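Board notes (copied after class):
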Amino acid sequence: MNIGIYIYENAEVLDFSGPFEVFSTANRFLKNKNQVFLIGQTSQPISARGGFNVIPHCNIDNHPVFFKVVVA
């Protein structure tokens, strides 16, 4: 299952890292593993709160088909 987490400039780090950790950790117990992606408006690094820089896996115009999208 593909799960996308949309991130944006000045996002709170826990708002996207928490769900990322939950979905990726669930893979320990799942037969059909989750694929978790961070989605940005572009593929450029995003500066979250506190200067925490994140490089999205994909962007809004170029991403796999998602089962679920979470907006941080």
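Comment from the instructor: The longest helix spans residues 13-25. Residues 2-59 form one domain.
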